[in-house]
């Protein structure tokens, strides 16, 4: 079974999220959207779309999106078969958090690493 196939997103907290977003937009040219982040579409060597994207997002320090972790970041990993991977992680004694969730954006599940960092696992909708 294939496990992680790529990075789906990088999420981090900032003391002043608005200022941090503005800095990245101004100085690094990241197209920060109203929702607080940007989506980087994957392209092949030929410059054509390659069927995926990576999300980048900054949230306020007060956000509880990464709970129960107290880390100021969370990485989202793209996976091929979320249910099979969550079953394997449970069987291996990993701390899988709650149940997976499905939405128009795909299926999501979570696990804590050995240091208590929340890891998000994402299976994109078919065709993406």
Give a verbal description of the structure:
The chain has 128 residues and is of the alpha/beta class. The chain has a single domain (4-123), classed as 2,3-Dihydroxybiphenyl 1,2-Dioxygenase, domain 1. It has 2 helices and 7 strands; from the N terminus they run βαβββαβββ. It has helices at 17-28, 82-91, and strands at 4-14, 37-43, 49-60, 73-79, 95-103, 106-112, 118-123. The protein has a 7-stranded mixed beta sheet. A hairpin with a 2-residue loop joins β5 (95-103) and β6 (106-112). 17% of the residues are buried. The model has no long low-confidence stretch (mean pLDDT 93).
Quick take:
Residues 6-124 form the VOC domain. This is Glyoxalase/Bleomycin resistance protein/Dioxygenase family protein. The protein has helices at residues 17-28, 82-91; strands at 4-14, 37-43, 49-60, 73-79, 95-103, 106-112, 118-123.
């Amino acid at each position: 079974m294939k496990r992680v196939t790529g990075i789906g997103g990088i999420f981090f907290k900032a003391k002043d999220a608005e200022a941090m977003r503005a800095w990245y937009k101004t100085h690094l040219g990241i197209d920060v959207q109203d929702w607080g982040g940007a989506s980087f579409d994957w392209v092949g060597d030929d410059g054509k779309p390659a069927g995926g994207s990576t999300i980048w997002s900054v949230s306020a320090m007060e956000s509880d999106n990464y709970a129960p972790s107290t880390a100021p970041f969370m990485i989202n990993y793209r996976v091929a078969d979320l249910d099979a991977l969550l079953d394997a992680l449970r069987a291996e004694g990993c701390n899988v958090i709650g149940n997976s969730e499905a939405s128009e954006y795909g299926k999501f599940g979570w696990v804590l690493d050995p240091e208590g960092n929340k890891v998000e696992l994402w299976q994109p909708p078919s065709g993406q």
